[in-house]
Amino acid sequence: MSKNFYLTTPLYYVNDEPHIGHAYTTVLADVIARYHRLFGETVHLLTGTDEHGQKVADASAKLGRTPLEHCDITSQRFVNVWEKLGVEYNDFIRTTEPRHTTLVAEILTRLNDKGDIYKQEYEGWYSVFEERFFTEKDLVDGMDPIGGRPVEKIKETNYFFKMSNYQEWLIDHYENHPDAVLPGFRLNEVLGFLRQPLGDLCISRPKSRLSWGIPIPWDEDYVTYVWFDALLNYYTATVHPPEGIAPKWPADFHLIGKDILTTHAVYWPIMLHAAGLEPPKHILAHGWWMAKDAAKMSKSRGNVVKPLDLADIYGPDSFRYYLMRDMVLGQDANFSEEMVVKRLNSDLANDLGNLLNRVTKLLTQHFDGVVPEVEWSDEDSLIELANQTAPKVHNLVEDLQIHSAIEETLQFVRATNRVIANDAPWTTIKSDKEAAGKALAKAAEAVRLATVLLYPVMPVKCSEILSRLGIGDIEVTDWEVTNWGDRLAGKTVTHGDPLFPRYKPPVTEDAPAKPKQDKKAKKEDSGMITFDQFKELDLRTAVVVAAEEVEKSDKLLKLQIDLGTESRQLVAGVKQFFKPEELIGKTVIVVANLKPAKIFGIESQGMMLAVRHGDSLTYLTPAGGDVPPGMRVS
Ligand code: ME8
Question: What is the mean pLDDT of residues 120-135?
Answer without folding.
Answer: 86
